[in-house]
Specification:
Largest sheet: 8 strands, antiparallel
Number of domains: 1
Structural class: alpha+beta
Number of helices: 3
Strand content: 25-35%
Number of strands: 8
Length: 186
């Protein structure tokens, strides 16, 4: 797994990808407000950490989908000092299955969390989900976990038009059981 410098924390050049990531971050804020944990119980720093990780994760995932068609799981983490870094499989390496990559990422983050080296993680995967109205869809999944106990899954369903253009549907959120931070709760 290689570590990469994070994307900037704010919008860059007004690209469509960053605009979409900001929209998704606004939905994150709404989900935080409407989650089982009230908005008052999620510390401002925790909400901001989650927003930053979701913005970075969605921006990179959308770029990789557009360029490569799919991708193996990757992740962003926020170090204890607030630095954001990306962790992903090396592009030229023979890769295990996506499920095995997820296990490796989660194991690496559990070790970092135990050592006090990270305060939040966002694990990103290309998945298939059941839609609330019925049917299935490909989706970007961003699983957020924070050492303060906040956990959530964010799904960004998408369709690929016949010409290859990606069309993203309304994002969906759900609770998540802590994998990296065992005290994390829904």
């Amino acid at each position: 797994m290689g570590e990469h410098a994070a994307l900037p924390r704010g919008p860059t050049a007004g690209t469509a990808v960053w605009r979409a990531a900001r929209v998704f971050a606004a939905i994150l804020a709404a989900c935080l407000a409407g989650s089982a944990r009230t908005a008052e119980s999620v510390a401002p720093e925790t909400a901001e950490d989650a927003r930053i990780l979701v913005e970075n994760a969605i921006a990179v995932a959308r770029i990789r989908l557009a360029k490569e068609g799919d991708f193996h799981p990757f992740a962003f983490f926020m170090a204890a000092d607030g630095r954001v870094q990306r962790m992903s499989p090396k592009q030229d390496a023979a890769l295990p299955s996506p499920d095995e990559v997820l296990v490796l990422l989660q194991q690496a983050f559990r070790e970092r969390a135990l050592a006090g080296e990270c305060r939040a993680v966002a694990v990103v995967a290309d998945v298939v989900i059941a839609l609330p109205g019925g049917g299935q869809s490909d989706a970007l999944q961003v699983g957020i976990e924070h050492r303060d106990g906040y956990c959530a899954n964010f799904f960004h369903p998408y369709e690929r038009d016949p010409d290859g253009t990606l069309r993203f549907l309304e994002p969906i959120s759900s609770g998540r059981k802590g994998i990296v931070f065992p005290d994390c709760h829904l």
